[in-house]
Prior knowledge:
- The complex is a heterodimer of chains A (162) and B (273).
- Chain A is mostly helical and 162 residues long.
- Chain A is built from 7 helices and no strands.
- In chain B, the strands form 2 sheets. Chain B has a 6-stranded antiparallel barrel. In chain B, strands 6-7-8-11-10-9 form a 6-stranded antiparallel beta barrel.
- Chain B has 4 domains: 2-60; 81-115; 123-182 and 264-271, Thrombin, subunit H (Beta Barrel), CATH 2.40.10; 188-259, Rod shape-determining protein MreC, domain 2 (Thrombin, subunit H, Beta Barrel), CATH 2.40.10.350.
- The longest helix of chain B is centred in the middle third of the chain and has 36 residues, at 80-115.
- At the A-B interface, α2, α3, α4, α5 and α6 of A face α1, α2 and α3 of B.
Amino acid sequence: MHLAKYLTPFVIFNIFLFFVFSITVSELYNFYFVNLFCYVLLHFLIIYLGIYYYRKILYFLYFFYGLALDLLWINQIGPHLLIFMIMLVFFNLIKKYMYNLNSQKIYLIILFIQLLIILLELLFSQLLFQYMFSLNTFIQLSIISIAISFPLLFLFSKIDNL
Amino acid sequence: MFIRSRIRSITNKKIFSNFILSILFILTFLLILFNKTDHYLVNKIKHISIDVVTPITKFVSAPITVTANIGAQLNNLRFLRAENNKLKEEIIRLKKWQTLAIKNTRENKVFKKLLNSTSNNIEIVKTASVLTHSSNIYARSITINAGTNFGVTSDMAVINNKGLVGKTVISSSKNSKIILINDQNSSVPVKSLSDRSYAIVKGSLDGKYLISAFIKNDAMPKIGDLLVTSGSAKIFPRDILVAKVIMVNQDHFIALPYVDFDNLDYVQIINSH
């Protein structure tokens, strides 16, 4: 009962985010799809928090996850950190316009931002560190994004109401 | 009066929030810049990431990892009978090779004595177990549980029983990060066993193969040629098995690495000099 007082939706989302991040950065043998799924989920969560739970602590969360993803995945600092910080500024600028949009439009915006940032991350990693852009990977990530976005939004809206 | 103080408070909050955001943005650009210049600070952050973040993420993702491993093992059980038969055939083949190897070793010993030559044995610094594998979307790397405390430093060659695995890129006191040879940014100087062809190979886009990035004098190897380290780079000692050539095109060739990168449990860090 006491615990429930502290388990606000924001805290739940953050626990979930850290769990997803942990799976994303560790490879699972023969379950490559799980890694891709968690990678997409992580981005979705990050965007969702940016849109619905915009607050100062997010600056540090975005910074931490961007940096950690870069270090644990690419072993260099660049694409994720840069994209996450740009995304944060973008949310800061557009948040006042978001209040006027209905949930359907916000859903489409989240999906669009997600596909855009995944594309940008792949492109930035090629520009900065010569990791060739893989169209195959991008298509896989896009399909997963589109497939899971609606059920996720539904699930997240349930968590919002807790 | 109240409205004025309220407006001031909101403005202050906005200024403060913009200030933090600006600081983080500047920090981001500085980190990217320092990373490009291999600054000490970035190396320190990398050490923290493998010493602190990696164990935590490993612990958190342990239930999923264990479940995935059980799933993989159950899947392997289906092919157990076929695999047993394959192994039996391999044992018979290897026994024949063993006889030949013993004969060659004896001959080598005699020749070495006659020539008074020194042997070229590999000095193993440490055998370490693999802590984590990185995901396959970007870099291909692993983290092992040995660092500077066991004499493991950056730029050391890493092998296993099958051949060349990669090289160490960062070493903290307890852990080290190894970039695998099938990473797109790795480059390994190799030669064919016949000494006919010298090249530099790097990982393919999907990480399954090695592709030649440079071929000396355009001397292409043949399909089926074995590639071993040439020893031209100071990191990898000579004659470590790397891959087998499976395709030769006009300007490049493709090779299949000997090491199974999906099933790395233990690796050995060797002294390159």
